[in-house]
Design a protein that fits this description.
Keywords: Repeat, TPR repeat. One of its GO terms (biological process) is receptor-mediated virion attachment to host cell. Pfam families: TPR_1 (PF00515), TPR_11 (PF13414), TPR_16 (PF13432). This protein is mostly helical and 255 residues long. Helix content is 70%, strand content 6%. It has 13 helices and 2 strands, in the order ββααααααααααααα. It has a two-stranded antiparallel sheet. α2 packs antiparallel against α3. The longest helix is centred in the C-terminal third of the chain and has 17 residues.
Length: 255
């Protein structure tokens, strides 16, 4: 059981994928007593959408072990998911103070900074995460998104290339690289990347959405609407109402 993806809309209606990570090491204890027990229990609650319960468990873990950097990091993820970026950054800061070599904390703080519009600060954090863990595919992907947001499409493509070289089945990186090619108006390469992302993950709503936009840019109205319908269906299944509504608006504009 794990969760790694958050999504947002880019300026051109393509969907950008930023990665976080919630990966419990074991099942929760039926009778949590130690800090690690509450940490695992918090992760399961986070994965099931119980943000309030997850924060309570992570806070209990921190009270039992004030030097528990992973619990600060995990609590920061919940704050980030619920839109409280300041609290998220505060928790990531504490995780980094406890362990200055915590690559995940730097990556996660980079995500929070990027979401707040501080792309330069985010890139510095991703740089540090990669310095600590040179084969950190997720950090390369996220830095690629930050570079794209700053208009450095060529630099972003290099980062997505690196993420894919580390993990050839990295559907998220293919979709994001497709967005960079789309930004360069290289629609053929963009569609090829979206195709690969969908081949790896056939229920990848964002990739269908993005391929639909690329097909629309090539005047393939029928293909675009078919892809956008698929995207809308998957976003609806995921209870992602904002992106579902945005895709439906795009379909109406194409008709």
């Amino acid at each position: 059981m794990s969760a790694t993806i958050t999504v947002s809309c880019g300026k051109n209606s393509n969907v950008l994928i930023t990665e976080i990570g919630v990966n419990p090491l074991r099942r929760p204890s039926s009778q949590p007593l130690e800090a690690s027990d509450f940490h695992i229990q918090g992760q399961y609650k986070h994965l099931r959408g119980d943000a309030q319960g997850a924060v309570a468990d992570y806070t209990r873990a921190i009270r039992l072990n004030p030097k528990f950097g992973a619990a600060y990091n995990s609590r920061g993820l919940v704050h980030f998911d619920t839109g409280n970026r300041e609290a998220a950054v505060s928790d990531y800061n504490q995780a980094i103070i406890i362990n200055p070599n915590d690559a995940e904390a730097y990556n996660n703080r980079g995500n929070a900074r990027a979401a707040g519009g501080d792309q330069s600060g985010a890139i510095k954090d991703y740089n540090q995460a990669i310095k600590i863990r040179p084969r950190y595919a997720r950090a390369y992907n996220n830095r690629g998104n930050a570079l794209s947001a700053k208009g450095d499409l060529k630099g972003s493509i290099l980062d997505f290339n690196q993420a894919i070289a580390i993990n050839p089945r990295y559907a998220v990186a293919y979709s994001n690289r497709g967005n960079a090619y789309y930004g360069e108006r290289n629609y053929q390469s963009a569609i090829a990347d979206y195709n690969q992302a969908i081949l790896i993950n056939p229920k990848f709503a964002a990739a269908y959405n993005n391929r639909g936009n690329a097909r629309a840019a090539q005047s393939d109205k029928q293909g675009a609407i078919a892809d956008l319908k698929m995207a809308a269906n998957f976003f609806k299944q995921q209870n992602n109402q904002p992106l579902y509504q945005k895709v439906m608006d795009n379909i109406r504009e194409l008709r």
